Amino acid sequence: LGAQALQQISEAQNLEALEALRVGLLGKSGSISALLKTLGGMSPEERQTTGPKIHALREGVTNALADKKAALESAALEAKLAAETVDLTLPAPEAPRGSVHPVSQVMDELAEIFADLGFAVATGPEIEDDWHNFTALNMPESHPARAMHDTFYIDKAASGYETEQDMVLRTHTSPVQIRAMLAAGGNKPLRIIAPGRVYRSDSDATHTPMFHQVEGLVIGKDITLAHLKWTLETMLKAFFERDDIVLRLRPSYFPFTEPSVEVDTGYSYVDGRRVVGGSGDDAGHSWMELLGSGMVNAHVLRAGGYDPAEWQGFAFGVGVDRLAMLKYGMNDLRAFFDGDARWLGHYGFSG
Ligand code: PHE
């Protein structure tokens, strides 16, 4: 039995086979266990001669099982290590890489372009009070222009705001004009842009409840509409990277500017995409509205702490999402906020 058992143990191919052998030999009803049970029925003399042999057999088999088990385990580990070896010469798999969102990209580009023109970046809160968002911008309570902004109001009781004023999600970046003027103290020239999120309760293919604007504000002692036109032309040429940008200034109305002008730019269709450039009056071209602007209204200068007898300025507000769509040929505004990496990738915005 001993020699046969040791032979089988040494030939066991794997841990399962070895365990089966162990059960067959040393288990409750194993053959060696059965031998041990026969000791009870032996005479003392018999037991004295046979007992040590059976115990030696059990010890030999036990040791052989343990040795074999260790050998099989280390072989299994070796095999596993060999199988999992990393081949450092293989090219690494390409991991998807994130990128700057087109909206952020455009805001960064505009900040850079305006920095070259001497503009600093100013910011304000997205949860704005009624005074900064409306009243200081020459839209007192019950002003009809307020109705043009589909305003989100904050539930003050629920939000815990301790203020007499209504709080709103800012409907435009224009309140930053007021904040920048007040911060400047009403006695020095200003040149700022204010990029950021704005909110209106409006949603369809061309409107999202949250979108982005860049506000511009210049205050000085001899600022005219000509400065506004030159600044916008220079900015748009740099942004669209072409010299043939033609602007058309149209009289318009905003409560916070006087006079107010809407600025159109010429464009044409190339491969079914709107491409900015040329005059809207050129053959094959049309005008599209790009932004609102004007000379800062005297009421607004006063609200910002500037004396309109001494200071003038111009302001403009441009939709960033709109500019991004034009520059990159994107046609669905909503896709901007879906966070779909495939859409971003399609326009070259992710790895
Ligand atoms: N605030 C205006 C809007 O959201 C844009 C604008 C800004 C117009 C500054 C004139 C001057 O539509």
Q: Name the shape in a single word.
A: elongated
The string of secondary-structure elements, in order, is HHHHHEEHHEHEEHEEEEHEHH
**Residue ranges: pLDDT <50 for 5 or more in a row?**
none
Bound ligands: phenylalanine
Radius of gyration: 41 Å
Helix content: 25-40%
Structural class label = alpha+beta
Number of helices: 12
Chain-averaged pLDDT: 92
Q: What is the β-strand count?
A: 10
Main sheet: strands, sense, barrel? 8 strands, mixed
The share of residues in extended strands comes to 15-25%
How far is it from the N-terminal to the C-terminal residue, by CA?
69 Å
Oligomer: single chain
Keywords: Aminoacyl-tRNA synthetase, ATP-binding, Cytoplasm, Ligase, Magnesium, Metal-binding, Nucleotide-binding, Protein biosynthesis
GO molecular function: ATP binding; magnesium ion binding; phenylalanine-tRNA ligase activity; tRNA binding
Cofactor: Mg(2+)
Organism: Novosphingobium umbonatum
